[in-house]
From TrEMBL:
Gene (name only): xth
Name of the protein this chain belongs to: Exodeoxyribonuclease III
Keywords: Hydrolase, Magnesium, Metal-binding
Lineage: Bacteria, Pseudomonadati, Pseudomonadota, Alphaproteobacteria, Sphingomonadales
This enzyme's EC code(s): 3.1.11.2
Domain Endonuclease/exonuclease/phosphatase: 4-248
Cofactor(s) the protein needs: Mn(2+); Mg(2+)
Originating species: Sphingomonas oryzagri
Top-level taxon of the source organism: Bacteria
């Protein structure tokens, strides 16, 4: 089973790119972020015509998350975090799909730092850490996928010295991510590519994509019950180079039907 995450940066404006990627790669389950559309403007008919059922949590002009599936109806279990510091922002959706609990998120950017937006990011992250601990405690197969707006380590950012003052690279944010992993979550992309330079986002400015001046901010985290089934993980980097594409590329994992890796209960792997 292939599960992917993709920040589409506007689901309607990028719809041709999204549909082309779905047709060419046929992922089974997809978490989308930055829909930038209210619920009534989500392109449900086009998504259905592509062979996917969907649930979504939209917002006019900003944010918005969705879960798409071609392997069974997503059964929504949560919309928004339990202690979301601002429930007017559509940033989290969760559903049971084909035997896996799928959580899709769009974590706040947090810039400028310091300031109220950065404070909100930290509060939202703390709510996520608390909820993730509850998910781990269930011993269910869970994946948390989305745009986390955090580069966990120096390996995950081009020219890290230029990002020291940015909210995506702040020590408090990286520490929160590490605490999340310490619950037992596996960072799937880094687990499969422990020492590679691998990015998921390239800015539109300064020819960043062509120079491979990127960031790794889109992650798929696997619970201890699911991590042993991780068989592959990668980035569909070429999609970022398509005409009128998002500034993010899709990230995906392959899950085997049976365990293929040793189980890991504790300790971050980033």
């Amino acid at each position: 089973m292939r599960i992917a995450t993709y920040n589409v940066n506007g689901v309607n404006g990028r719809l041709p790119v999204l549909l082309r990627w779905l047709e060419e790669t046929s992922p089974d389950i997809i978490c989308l972020q930055e829909l930038k559309a209210p619920d009534e403007r989500f392109p449900a008919a086009a998504i259905e015509a592509a062979g996917y059922e969907a649930i979504w949590h939209g917002q006019k002009s900003w944010n918005g998350v969705a879960i798409l599936s071609r392997v069974g109806t997503p059964v929504e279990t949560r919309r928004g975090l339990p202690d979301d510091p601002d429930n007017t922002q559509s940033r989290y959706i969760e559903a049971a799909v084909n035997g896996v609990l799928v959580a899709g998120l769009y974590l706040p950017n947090g810039n400028p730092r310091p300031g109220p937006k950065f404070d909100y990011k930290l509060r939202w992250f703390e709510s996520l850490v608390a909820h993730a601990a509850e998910l781990v405690a269930t011993d269910m197969p869970v994946v948390i996928a989305g745009d986390f707006n955090v580069m966990p380590t120096d390996r995950d950012v081009y020219r890290p010295e230029r990002w020291l003052d940015d909210a995506l690279f702040a020590p408090e944010v990286r520490e929160a991510y590490a605490r999340l992993l310490a619950q037992g979550w596996t960072d799937a992309l880094r687990a499969m590519h422990p020492s590679e330079t691998i990015y998921t986002f390239w800015d539109y400015l300064r020819n960043a994509y062509a120079r491979n001046a990127g960031l790794r901010i889109d992650h798929l985290l696997l619970s201890p019950a699911l991590a042993p089934r991780l068989a592959a993980a990668n980035v569909d980097r070429d999609v970022r180079g398509w005409e009128k594409s998002s500034d993010h590329a899709p990230v995906w994992i392959e899950l085997a039907n049976k365990p293929v890796r040793a189980s890991r209960r504790k300790g971050p792997k980033i």
